[in-house]
Design goal:
By secondary structure, this protein is of the alpha/beta class. The chain contains 13 helices and 13 strands. Strand 1, helix 1 and strand 2 form a beta-alpha-beta unit.
Length: 352
Amino acid sequence: MRVLQLIDTLTPGGAERVALNLANSLEGEVEASYLCCTRDEGMLKEELDDEVGFCFLNKKHSFDLRAFWKLTTFIKKEQIDLVHAHGTSWFWGVLLKLSGLNIKLVWHDHYGESEELEKRDVKFLKPLSRYFDGIISVNDDLKAWAKRELSSDKVIQLNNFIVPSKEVDSGLKLKGDPTDFKIVCVANLRPQKDHLNLLLAFEILSIEEISLHLIGVDPGSNYSQALKKEITKSGKKIFHYGSTPNVFGLLEQADLGVLSSRSEGLPLALLEYALAGLPVVCTEVGQCREVVDDAALLVPPSNPKALGKAIRFYFHNVDKRKKDAYRLHKRLKKTYSKEALLPVLSNFYNNL
């Protein structure tokens, strides 16, 4: 079987990281593994294994015929059997089938607003889903939604997984006083991630020797601009690093991983924290409880007082946070590793 991962960009993000992990992990598990980036390349391309076939389309719009011809030519030349489309790239996956290519099409649904599925725009997705040979959902809510709303009868839930990065130490260091208790939050600056909730919680903390470190893409939106304004106004030690390929290098310097989202699917940030051996405080949204079980502190969303209280608890209880970090790391290895999940994916592919 020859499998192509289809993704819009390789700018750091959850869906992008999953597409990259799958392309790299499937090398040696299938006859050939490929990744196609349709719209924009990004720094994650640096982590693509040399053995994985790569195609960049530089697509300018949804009906870019030059880019579409390049993709169909690549699929024919490489004799690709299955296209695994991530997120919004499902549309071009459907166009590939409509063009007459003899491929199987899998759609991987990474939708992060699981708590607000009724607001999802499906006016094109719903009728065109009949061209999906299979659907992979990142959590149970999305799986139930796909079975109820879409036309494909082959739907599975597959946990996200994380693999150790091959990146080398870039020398990038967390800012501020090296003796501070360092809280890190890996999340692109989007409203769903609710950084403002975290900032409010951080303001509540009356602890001098503590700093907050935000890592994630700044899209230049109204939300991110408002967020940066709040950071500037604060007298606390808060630092934003933008996007970086060396996430694990920074996580290894931190003391606590936090996720303050108001909505989630199955956030890769939690898996990254666990892999780096960090204790975790996160809001109880999406699959967060399923990921951490009782090896982390869960708080209600949009509740800065509860979030601040959980952070303060771990700050003062060193033994507890070390014990929880160890348990969470073990849980990740058992439940969210490629060794546990690749056989499930391979079986799904083969059944199609």
